[in-house]
Fold this protein.
Amino acid sequence: MYIISPSILSCDFSKLGVQVEETGKTAAKYIHIDVMDGAFVPNITIGPCVIASLRSHSDLVFDTHLMINEPIRYINEFRKAGADIITVHAEACADLEATLKEIRACGAKVGLSIKPKTDPETIRAYLPLCDMILIMTVEPGFGGQSFIYEAVENIKKVKAMIEEAGLNIPIEVDGGITVDTIGVAAKAGAEIFVAGSAVYKKADIAKAVSDLLDSAMQAGNN
Ligand code: DX5
Ligand code: ZN
């Protein structure tokens, strides 16, 4: 089963509650919430208080992508605000094992992400602590960028590593996902697809989500 996780980064933030409610009427099961600190990435977005406000507007899975340095400092706050999945970057954690265990301990699903140029081998040892791996297919920081085809190798490598370890962990991809690129990611082994511009910059977001799902299924036979 493929899952689309629309990224609110491409929403009109003055209408965020309404747009999140509308997303709940589409085929999307997750909603992707990009948290940026202006240090790990060159952009600043939102924090736990916005997530807490959105929680009463939606039953979607809150797929929370923390692009912040040392996220271990804020794991409990994001969980209390309503995050269901908390994803951290391998590049942003001095003690990655402790960070992943902190997410597990607070009751959220554990996500681990790597940037396009990070060697997937760096996360091999941490796979048993994870519920999802997020492969970035753009440099994190901004919506609306072009899909980096070289990062497809990372999807394949992580997929192989997961299988070698005898684990069953879904791979999510994030960045530049459109009806034209989603198939490549699906074929490489991704099952969860973040899409910002390809959903919220379209007039009909329900159709945009269905079109993405159709393209993924056509390519991946899933
Ligand atoms: C980028 C964010 C993405 C972004 C995706 O750092 O992590 O989630 O919103 O936007 P699109 O789908 O427009 O590339
Ligand atoms: Zn993201």
